[in-house]
Amino acid sequence: MPALINWLYLEMLSEFCIEEKKELREEELVLKAEKAKMEQQVKFMTPHPAACQAEGTKMPVFPGYAYIPMWQYSPQTTCDTSHDHELRPLAA
Q1: Among 27, 52, 74, 77, which residue's beta carbon has the most beta carbons within 10 A?
Q2: 8 A C-beta contact, residue 51 and residue 61
Q3: Please, are residues 31 and 39 in contact by the beta-carbon 8 Å criterion?
Q4: Are 60 and 53 in contact (CB under 8 A)?
Q5: For the stretch 44-61, what's the b/e string if a residue is b when 16 or more beta carbons lie within 10 angstroms of its beta carbon?
């Protein structure tokens, strides 16, 4: 009798393992499809090489946005250069 029980147990265990293997294969296919989809999304998200300036500067250029001179928006006292010689030494 114990041999029959062991045989039934092994039979159930093998069926369980087969079902688990099928589920894992299905999950693997789903994950591979998700990975391919994410890789495509990343490929479209990477910036175009023309979106970067020359190697000398580190500031990226965003197409469609021009450089905006910010000194126009700073207060007049900041842009005043009449007292620069008192604040900083003269350059030779």
Answers
A1: 52
A2: yes
A3: no
A4: yes
A5: eeeeeeeeeeeeeeeeee
pTM, two decimal places? 0.43
- ∠ CA 77-69-75, rounded to 5°: 15
pLDDT in the model for residue 47: 62
Whole-number Å distance between alpha carbons of 58 and 51: 12
Structure tokens at 50: 């023309």
pLDDT tens-place string over residues 1-57? 677 788 888 889 999 999 999 999 999 999 999 999 999 888 877 665 555 544 555
Q: How many CA atoms lie within 13 A of 21 on its CB side?
A: 6
Better-scored residue on pLDDT, 69 or 39: 39
